[in-house]
Every structure is written in C-alpha cells, then in structure tokens.
Specification:
12 helices, Rossmann fold, alpha/beta, eight-stranded mixed sheet
Length: 339
C-alpha cells in the first residue's frame, strides 16, 4: 500500500472585484425647466381610490405620457414634493401620495405600518392605475419605492431615490442635533422621547425637523416653516397620526435589527435609477451613497455638497436638473454609460 499522498489540483479562484462605482448624473439644460416660485403653496389634494387602496394625494398638472409619483419619508407628507413637482411639471404630471396614516391619508384597515405594508399599499395603488410611472422616494419613501420597483418592474419606468433609508445601525455623531428625534424611533425606550416631541408646539417641531434634515437650516424660508407648522398642527387633530408615525418608525428600525436588508432588494431593480444624496445628511449616512448606487444595476449618482437629508426640499433646482436629465436620456436611449 503506497503511503504517498496524491495531489489534487485546486482550481484558481480569482478575487471578487469590488462593485463598479456608479457614473455621475446627466443634467438637463436649466433653460428647459420652469422658474421656481419660492412662495408656491401645496398642490390641490383629494382622496383617490386605486387598486383597492384609498390615499390622499396632491396632483400636479402636466403631460400624461408617463406620470411621476412622489413618496415622502417618515413623518413627512405629499407637501414635501411641492417645489420639485412644480419644476418637473413641464415634463410629467405628478401625483404626490400621503402614505397610509400620514399626511391626510387614513390608515389601512389592517393597521399594517411595516415597510412591507406600506410597499404593498403603494404597489396596489400604482397597479390600479395600470401604467408605468416615474417613481421618486425620499428616506423611508425611498425604501418603499425601492421595494416596489424590485417587485413590480413593469410599473416603474424610472426610479429616483433621495437619501433612501438603507439599513444603518452604526453610531453617527451628526445625528444628535436633537437626540429625541432619533430616540423616538426606538421601541420601548423611545416612549419618553416621543412624548416630549408631541408636547412641543407645532412651530418648534417644524424648526427641530429643519435643524435635523437640512444641511443648512438657515436657508429654510419663513413661508415653508409656517406651512410645516400648520401641517403639524393639523395632524395633531387626526386620531391616527401619532400611531402611524410611531409604529412605522419602530417597524423600520425593528427590521434593521432583525437583519432585513434592502441591499439584496436593490440588486433586483431593473429600472434606470438616479440616487441623490446630500453630503450633510444627518439621518442616513452619506457614506452609503456610493454603496447604494453600486447596488442598483442601472444607476447614476448625484451627491450635493452642503445639502442634508431632504434634497428635494433644500435644493430642488439641481435635483430637478438631474431627474429631468435622466428622463430625457431614458427617452433617448442614452442613459446607459458608454462601455
């Protein structure tokens, strides 16, 4: 019996390549966009039933070929898209939705405030309309839009993600401009923070949100602060408002803690995608911008210096140029990067 060990060749396995960085945006000529009116009020709103789901929406008139649908973030509403929808109205009619329990939308009968529940509601709403849309989402709304685009690609012509709420539990000192806003999202221990926020008057709450969400809070106009304060006051009169905000926030964080990941979802998106991030985002770390864009196969990335978490509110003009540039390039078949 031979004691010589036999040699079995092991195939060479090359090291996996890192994700390819996403190319930059394609910007539309600013002359093709209408001038922005800084004093414009919210677009008209109404309840709309589609796909068995009732949502309050704000409609922006415009060309109906491929309409745009705008999805707000946690504790936001359809009014978060007033300026951007106006700038894009010459290219597409717009529908800014209030997610169930937010803005003026009543909650679903199921009271399902999980990210999947919100995505189901939006998906049914879009499917009921029966045609593809340009889908835009900010923060939590970006995560919802990402899920919808991955699950039903035939409904989404293009996707725009403004600081989407990608999972991130690492501490970030920039998030502490008002710790109560962050603690309020946590189960159990956030109860006291939520109570403190609810006790603040509407104007103070509007200023707190601006300090956290804007890269430069000083540019927030008195007109928009007054609008936000009035909206906070109106929501205080809605029986379901606090429940919707608390349960949605806790469900989002609980999903992160359970290891539910949007990264695999992002890899399944087929639509041309624009990822927009502010370099001063205090809520979703800017370090996730390149990773997010790399995770979505057909994406481009716009990073805005000096801008925070709600770029569509703080810097609507460059965001509009990038979104319009994507729409134009997709229509012309020139979105894909050469080579």
């Amino acid at each position: 019996m031979s004691t010589t060990a036999s040699f079995v060749p092991v195939p060479f396995l090359p090291r996996a390549r890192p994700p390819r960085p996403a190319p930059g945006p394609l910007l539309a000529d600013p002359a093709t966009l209408p001038p922005r009116d800084p004093h414009r009020g919210p677009w008209p709103g109404a309840e709309v039933v589609s796909g068995g789901v009732t949502l309050h929406v704000r409609e922006t008139p415009g060309p109906q070929d491929t309409p745009a649908v705008y999805v707000h973030g946690l504790s936001g509403s359809a009014t978060n898209w007033t300026d951007l929808a106006a700038l894009l109205a010459t290219r597409a009619a717009g529908t800014a939705v209030d997610l169930p329990g937010f803005g003026l939308s009543r909650p679903l009968a199921s009271r399902d405030y999980s990210p999947a529940g919100h995505a189901d509601a939006l998906l049914c709403f879009l499917a009921g309309r029966g045609r593809p849309v340009h889908l835009l989402g900010n923060s939590f709304g970006g995560a919802v839009a990402l899920s919808v685009a991955a699950r039903r690609p035939e409904l989404v012509r293009t996707l725009t993600l403004v600081s989407p709420a990608m999972p991130d539990l690492r501490p970030d000192p920039r998030r502490v401009s008002d710790p109560r806003l962050l603690l309020s999202l946590l189960p159990v221990i956030g109860r006291r923070a939520r109570a403190a926020l609810a006790a603040a008057d509407p104007r103070a709450r509007a200023e707190q949100v601006v300090r956290l969400c804007f890269g430069d809070p000083g540019i927030a106009s008195e007109h928009r602060l007054a609008e936000a304060a009035a909206e906070f006051a109106a929501r205080e009169r809605l029986a379901w408002a606090r429940e919707a905000a608390e349960r949605t926030g806790k469900a989002m964080v609980a999903g992160w803690l359970r290891g539910e990941s949007l990264w695999s979802v992002a890899s399944r998106v087929q639509a041309p995608t624009l990822v927009v991030w502010g370099e001063r985002d205090r809520l979703v770390a800017p370090r996730l911008a390149h990773r997010t864009a790399a995770a979505v196969p057909r994406s481009r990335l716009l990073v805005l210096p000096g801008v925070g978490h709600v770029a569509q509110i703080e810097a609507p003009d460059p965001v509009a140029r990038a979104v319009a540039g994507m729409w134009d390039a997709v229509d012309a078949g020139t979105w894909e990067e050469p080579g």
